[in-house]
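Journal club prep, notes for RB
We'll compare a predicted complex against what the paper describes. Inputs for the nicotinamide-adenine-dinucleotide case:
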Amino acid sequence: MDKVKVGVIGVGGMGSGHATTMKSVEEVELTAVCDIEKGVAEQVAAEHQVKCFVDSRALIDSGLADAVIVATPHYFHPPIGVYAMKKGLHVLSEKPVAVTVAAADQMNKTAQQTGVIYTVMYQNRSVPLYRAVKKLIDEGRLGELYRTSFIDPHYRSQAYYDSATWRATWRGEGGGVLLNQAPHGIDIFTWLAGLPVRVLAETRTRCHKIEVEDEASARLEYANGAIGYYHTSVNEHPGGSYMELCGEEGKIVIADGKPKFYTLETPIQQFTEENDQMWASPSVHEEEVAVEETESGHKMIIRNFARAIIYNEPLLAPGVEGLVSVEFMNALVLSGKKNKPVEIPVDREEYEEFIEEMRKSSKEKKLTGPTQRVTDPYHLT
Ligand SMILES: NC(=O)c1ccc[n+]([C@@H]2O[C@H](COP(=O)([O-])OP(=O)(O)OC[C@H]3O[C@@H](n4cnc5c(N)ncnc54)[C@H](O)[C@@H]3O)[C@@H](O)[C@H]2O)c1
C-alpha cells in the first residue's frame, strides 16, 4: 500500500478542513465523506468528487476506506471510533478523544484489542519547539520538576456559541472551554510535565450565556510533591500562553511560543545544603533550545497517521495518550462543579454519574440564526 484510503466522518468546519488538507498529503487519498446533515455531506462530496454517506457505519462498512478521520462533535468520537476499529479501520480522532475518561478507556481498549493504528489530532505535538522541549525534559535536563504553571487564555464570542446547538451544552458538548479550546494546551502541558495526581479547581461562566464553564483555574499536585497552577478561559483578548516548568536543575519558560531555557550549575537542593554564603544562589546559564524546523500542524498529523499505517512510523500523537488530557479536563470539571479536590485517575463511575446528571439538566438550545460550520481560521493549517 502506498496510499491510505481515508473517509472523513463529520464534515463541518474541521472535517471539511481536513478533507482539503489531505490534498497536499501524498500518502492519503480521500475516498468518502459522511455527515448526518445530508446537504453538508453532499456539498463536501461534490467538492472532492467522492462518495457521500449520512450514516458513519455505512461509510465504514462500504469498503471504500482503510481509515477514518472522526471530526464530529466530541460525544460521537468513541462510538464511531470503536465501531471503525472493530471493523479493522485505522482511526484518527479529533480532540478530545472522548468527553469522559470511561469512553476514552473504551477507545484505548478497542485499539489494543484490534491492533489498528489510532491517533489523535493533537497537532501541537508536531510543533518543532514543543518537540525540542520534550527532548530536553526526556534527557533529564530540568532534573526533577518541583513547580509548573500554565496560563492558556483564548477568546470566543457569544456568536460563536450561538452558531450550533451542540456547542457549550452539557448534552451536546459535555463541557466548555476545558473540553474545546483548552485540550491542545492541556495535551502539551501534560506531555511535558506529566499528569498531576490531585487537582482543586474553580470553574465558572463569566462572560457568555452558556451552560458550561468559560473559565477554569486549578491548583495541581504531582506524585513527587511538586505543585502547579493552571488557568484557561475564552474571556481574554489578546490571548497568548505562558508555561513554566521548574526543576531541580533547570527551568523552561515558554511565553507566546518563545522559549527560555535556564540551567543551574548546582542543583537547588544540593546548593541549598552545601553553600555557606548568606546571599548566594546557584550560577545560572541560559541555553539556546535547539529547534529543528519541520512540517507541523494538521498536515503533519495526517501524514504521520498514514505513514504509521504504511511504514510503521511511530505516532507523534498516539490515540491512547489522548486519555491523559481527558483525565485532566474531567478532574477540573468535576472539582469545579463539586467544589472539592479530585484525584487522578478520575473515578470512572463517579464521572459517568456526574455527566449523566449534567446532561439531564441540560436545556435544548434554540438557535436564532442558521447553524454555522466554520472552523477557527487559525486552526485550518
Ligand atoms: N484539532 C483542531 O485544531 C480542531 C479545531 C476545531 C475543531 N476540532 C474538533 O473537531 C470536532 C468538530 O468540530 P467543528 O468545529 O468542526 O464542528 P462543526 O459543528 O462545524 O462540525 C461537526 C459536523 O459533524 C456533523 N455530525 C454530528 N454528528 C454526527 C454523526 N454522528 N455522524 C456524522 N456527522 C455528524 C455535524 O452535522 C457537523 O457538520 C470537535 O470535536 C472539535 O473539538 C478540532
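Talking point for the session: Residues 125-294+325-361 form a domain with the Dihydrodipicolinate Reductase; domain 2 fold (CATH 3.30.360.10).
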